[in-house]
Specification:
The complex is a heterotrimer of chains A (about 280), B (about 300) and C (about 450).
Chain A lengths: L1 H31 L4 H4 L12 H11 L2 H32 L8 H10 L6 H10 L6 H5 L6 H12 L3 H9 L4 H12 L1 H16 L3 H6 L8 H9 L8 H21 L1 H12 L2
Helix pairs in contact in A: 1-14, 3-14, 4-8, 4-11, 11-14, 11-15, 13-14
Chain B lengths: L15 H27 L2 E3 L6 E3 L3 H8 L1 H32 L6 H9 L6 H11 L6 H10 L10 H29 L3 H9 L4 H12 L1 H18 L1 H7 L11 H11 L3 H25 L9
Antiparallel strand pairs in B: 1-2
Chain C lengths: L1 H25 L4 E7 L3 H17 L3 E7 L3 H13 L6 E5 L3 H5 L4 E2 L4 H4 L11 H6 L1 E2 L2 E2 L2 E6 L1 E6 H6 L11 H13 L7 E3 L2 H11 L6 H5 L12 H15 L13 H5 L5 E5 L3 H7 L4 E4 L15 E8 L4 H14 L2 H11 L6 H9 L2 H4 L1 H11 L6 H4 L6 H16 L5 H23 L1
Parallel strand pairs in C: 1-2, 1-3, 9-10
Antiparallel strand pairs in C: 3-12, 4-12, 5-6, 7-12, 8-10, 8-11
Helix pairs in contact in C: 2-15, 9-20, 15-16, 20-21
The chains are: A mainly alpha (about 280), B mainly alpha (about 300), C alpha/beta (about 450).
Chain lengths: ~280, ~300, ~450
């Protein structure tokens, strides 16, 4: 019994140490975000937190107009995630519940999308945005991301486990396929929807290269470019205190989403890891 | 892969499936396939920055790339970088997941504590690690100097060091994601297998290598592919924030070199050729992954 | 009766419609123009102030200034916008983008604009070395805006600490080496000198000694097709730097402004850096900052230091009204008080002679000698040779990378200076010939 407790205790020690090591960079960033410009350049580097967190956050907020950036990034991230989910649900439903010509193309299509990440087509897609006059619009930031084969495969996997009796019963009750889809299938998919929302929201919030090239104005700026703008200083050494304050604030929304839905997220992953 | 649909579940709706898949297919064709084809075509041309003149150069863009030492360096840097992220990342994550996969109190807390870094974007991670490794004033160079009696760690002038630093930063960034999947995979391994191995007298190492690891291979293959995609593409923000591909070309991984050629040097032909080469590499990896993955959750980013 | 009512209704409607349209017509719409620039941080604030004042004093016009990222990003965005016909009226392009802009077919040369709007203009009011940079065949193509050059910054306190005279900085590379040895042996610093923009410093060194960097008169008489960096002079320069590095005097500090932090932290005693860093360095350095001309290599001719920074280009295809607005702004920038405001707020050179005179008159330069150093360097050098004016190359951005790599490899001992320069020259020549071929 004692050895059991020892073992557990040792595990805890190891785990806590690991947590601290892995979280240290963020802790340090948090400390720096509470310092003044000079304090951040103290040598030896200062580990005692200061009192300037709020002023630094305000300065970062003002410098890159974070309110607007939050809004744009929030709309793009949440909006795209929702549209992706809807489109994936629809496509997965079609593929699993209907026989139609071209069904066999599902896998090639998903393979194509996985093999065509942005960099493989970056210049022409960019020029396409320019010719649509979509530069600096929500459209450019969202449309190219709407198709999610991850989502399609995810829901398809799930729908294949839904027993046929369900749709049979619905049909007997006189429900058409759309009724069945909306009133029965989608509510059933709640966990997967939440999990996908987390993934897609974080994915869109983290977007860097695409917003970098399709937005040029400050009022369509996305969060990650906001961080870049914070760091971009012309002739002076970077103001790490302000940069860290801004970076940490930038990390909050995806963190919030992850924490809010983490049960579903974990469940969804667990579900997928099983056969 | 085989959907056994013998009869229509909802007969009498011939058009509905097409309508349902139309938006997704439309987006894929318009925004993915068409630009890709344009990339292919563009790779055979060279044009001025402002597009005033375009000439056909056949395979010249490709031959130049494949014989350029810059491109070789870029490819090697990418391989080293991706290799580090994949191998070290998975090894560390697996170890941690294994530790987590016990019946201990506070498991929930630990799960949160390890997974939350998934929410940190590559750019944010880049900013934080740039701070920590800032030459002259950063905390890591300070510690190294103190411990080594004055060795100045300056990644801005030391190529291999810069590559190492960004590799560590990128690996750190993916830890949360990897741990979550490994943990799920581990928890799916039926207890009986582990117990029977224990009964047979196998030590923990043996059990791990002979039973656990093989049973994890679906998860491992999947994570290898996802980490590869991450290391090839999604780290762009991290590199742009930390090193801009420097010093010299030390961290000028393929995606960054592509960006530079396309948008800084305004050489669309070379950029398109690079796009296609990257496409070939990723396709091969995707096909390999498909072979290994029989039934798979593809929670790719 | 009915017809009358209908008639009155029609008239009433017409009157109402007229009343609605009248304000549209009566209110003369402001002529809107946009300007894309790359001035961030405190420089960006000065830009905003100037734009605000311009709009206030020119009620017919509305100038919208947009920060569009770094110089490269601004250039890329401009090209994309131009190709989709949504380009801004004015764009700020860095000096190394000059040849690209000249070959683009997208711009109206600035010297033609007064004629197009029915005015005349005295081009002699601008500072000559600056206009030389942006002129072809004596005609100015872009409006100088933010010009800088490089100079040698040094730490006066460390000089005193090492027993050197803080008011006698080195004039030649030989002297710099001497001072450097003393600084190290006295324990004042572990390393002495670093570069900001090392590639630019190489170009500066060529121009300062009247050496051509590329053929065809530095790319000014015709498109450059070969670089001349791997000749005797270039090899000598890099050999010197490599030797200084071996002695611990020179330490490579990374690109752009990366070396500033080390200088401000007192870890190096000297920094060759852009004059535009002056305000930031003085603010961020807890010691006395001195500046002086770039060190010379004895035995070589005298040239000039090269203009850096950026200039403003005017997009083709604008309406006459828009051109009037653009020209009004360009003229506004040439007003002495505006030029002085720009200089004082950013440290960039004033582009008009009248502003220089104003600054001299009010004793600005005697308040802080450092601001004078850079200016004197430019004004006291040659202005009549292509070598002293600076090189012009299409694929300049990429070639700068090759220069940097050559410097890095020589300084770290990876390659001999000649081999490093040969490698850079080879790559540069290929790009130059590509560029020239495409222009035919």
């Amino acid at each position: 019994m004692a050895s059991r407790l020892w073992k557990e205790g040792a595990s805890h020690v190891v785990l806590i140490t690991l947590v601290l090591i892995i979280t240290f960079p963020v802790i340090y960033a948090l400390i720096v975000s509470t310092l003044t410009y000079q304090q951040a350049y103290e040598f030896p580097p200062r580990l005692i937190p200061g009192t300037e967190l709020w002023p630094n956050v305000l300065e970062a907020w003002e410098r890159i107009n974070m309110g607007r950036v939050f809004f744009v990034t929030g709309v793009v991230s949440a909006g795209t995630a929702v549209v992706k989910i809807v489109l994936s649900l629809m496509a997965a439903f079609a593929y699993t519940h209907f026989k139609f010509r071209g069904r066999a193309l599902l896998f090639p299509l998903t393979m194509i999308t996985q093999m065509l990440p942005l960099p493989v087509r970056i210049l022409p897609t960019f020029e396409m945005m320019a010719s649509f006059h979509w530069i600096n619009t929500y459209s450019a930031l969202t449309f190219p991301f709407f198709a999610s084969t991850t989502g399609i495969l995810l829901f398809r996997q799930f729908y294949m486990t839904v027993p046929r009796d369900l749709s049979d019963a619905a049909r007997v009750d006189g429900a058409g396929p759309l009724r069945y889809f909306i009133q029965i299938l989608i509510p059933l998919s709640r966990t997967n929807i939440a999990a996908l929302f987390v993934i897609e929201f974080i994915f869109m919030w983290s977007q860097y290269l695409w917003p970098l090239i399709v937005t040029t104005t400050a009022d369509m700026r996305m969060m990650q470019i906001g961080i870049k703008m914070l760091i971009a200083t012309d002739q002076i050494a970077p103001a790490w205190n302000v940069i860290m304050a801004g970076t940490i604030v930038a990390m909050l929304p995806p963190l919030l989403v992850l924490m809010l839905f983490r049960k579903s997220f974990a469940e969804g992953i667990a579900m997928q890891s099983q056969k | 892969m085989a959907d056994n649909i013998e009869e229509e579940r909802f007969p009498g709706h011939p058009l509905l499936p097409y309508i349902l898949i139309l938006p997704s297919v439309a987006v894929i064709v318009v925004f993915l396939v068409v630009p890709f084809l344009q990339s292919v075509i563009g790779s055979f041309f060279r044009s001025t920055a402002f597009g005033t003149k375009t000439v056909y150069v056949g395979l010249d863009n490709y031959t130049r790339l494949l014989t350029a030492s810059d491109y070789h360096n870029s490819a090697i840097a990418t391989l080293l970088f991706a290799g580090f992220v994949m191998v070290v990342g998975l090894a560390v994550s697996l170890a941690i997941a294994h530790l987590l996969n016990q019946k201990i109190r506070g498991l929930g807390f630990y799960q949160v504590a390890f997974i939350w870094t998934y929410a940190i974007s590559p750019a944010a991670a880049g900013a934080i690690w740039a701070l920590m490794f800032a030459p002259s004033t950063g905390i890591v160079p300070f510690i190294v100097a103190a411990l080594s009696g004055g060795y100045l760690l300056n990644w801005m002038t030391n190529g291999p060091l810069a590559l190492l630093v960004v590799s560590i930063a990128a690996t750190w960034n993916m830890l949360g994601y990897n741990i979550v999947f490994f943990l799920a995979g581990l928890q799916n391994i039926p207890e009986e297998f582990i117990d029977s191995a224990r009964v047979d007298g196998a030590g923990p190492w043996r059990t791990f290598w002979d039973i656990t690891f093989p049973m994890l291979s679906p998860t491992t293959t999947f994570l290898l592919f996802v980490n590869m995609i991450y290391a090839f593409f999604q780290v762009f923000g991290l590199i742009d924030i930390m090193t801009h591909g420097g010093p010299g070309d030390a961290t000028n991984i393929l995606i960054y070199k592509l960006y530079r050629d396309a948008f800084l040097y305004l050489d669309s032909g070379a950029a398109s050729a690079q796009s296609i080469i990257v496409f070939v590499v990723i396709s091969m990896a995707a096909v390999v992954q498909l072979r290994f993955a029989t039934r798979r959750a593809i929670y790719a980013r | 009766m009915l017809i009358n009512i209908r008639r009155w209704l029609m008239i009433g409607l017409a009157l109402i419609l007229g009343a609605c349209l009248m304000p549209e017509v009566a209110l003369a719409k402001k002529i809107e123009i946009t300007w894309w620039h790359a001035m961030s941080g405190s420089n960006g604030k000065v830009v905003d102030a100037i734009v605000k004042d311009f709009n206030a004093t020119h009620p017919d016009f509305e100038l919208k200034a947009l920060y569009t990222g770094s110089y490269e990003e601004t250039m890329t965005k401009y090209i994309a916008a131009y190709r989709s016909r949504t380009a801004p009226s004015l764009v700020q392009v860095y000096e190394i983008g000059t040849q690209q802009m000249l070959s683009s077919g997208a711009v109206i040369p600035v010297h033609e604009i007064p004629g197009m709007v029915g005015e005349s203009w005295d081009w002699a009011q601008y500072v000559i070395p600056i206009t030389n940079y942006y002129s072809t065949d004596g005609k100015l193509w872009s409006m100088p805006f933010n010009s800088s050059t490089t100079m040698l910054y040094y730490n006066k306190d460390l000089y005193a600490k090492a027993g050197l005279d803080p008011n006698k900085p080195p004039k030649t590379w030989a002297e710099l080496e001497e001072h450097g040895k003393k600084l190290i042996s006295s324990g004042a610093v572990p390393h002495v000198l670093s570069f900001g923009w090392p590639d630019w410093q190489l170009e500066q060194t060529f121009a300062a000694h009247d050496q051509l960097f590329a053929n065809n008169e530095n790319g000014r008489k015709g498109l450059a097709t070969k670089v001349l960096i791997n000749g005797e002079f270039g090899t000598m320069v890099l050999t010197t730097w490599a030797r200084l590095a071996k002695e611990g005097i020179f330490i490579y500090g990374g690109p752009e402004y990366a070396a500033n932090a080390a200088f401000q932290a007192g870890q190096i005693a000297m920094l060759m850096q852009s004059t535009s860093s002056l305000a930031g360095i003085e603010k961020g350095s807890p010691f006395k900052v001195g500046t002086t001309f770039l060190p010379r290599f004895e035995g070589y001719p005298s040239g000039n230091s090269v203009i850096g920074g950026a200039s403003l280009w005017v997009t083709k295809g604008q309406s006459k009204d828009e051109l009037r607005a653009v020209w009004a702004f360009l003229k506004y920038l040439g007003r002495p008080e505006v030029a002085v405001q720009w200089h004082k707020g950013t440290g960039y050179f004033p582009s008009v002679n009248s502003a220089v005179q104003t600054l001299l008159d009010e004793g600005w330069f005697s308040k802080d000698q450092n601001y004078l150093t850079a200016f004197l360097q430019i004004l006291s050098g040659r202005r009549d040779t292509a070598a002293a004016t600076g090189v012009r190359m299409g694929p300049f951005v990429q070639i700068r990378e090759f220069e940097r790599t050559a410097i890095e490899k020589s300084v770290s001992g990876q390659l001999t200076p000649k081999a490093a320069l040969d490698e850079a020259a080879r790559k540069a020549d290929q790009l130059l010939s590509d560029f020239a071929k495409l222009q035919q």
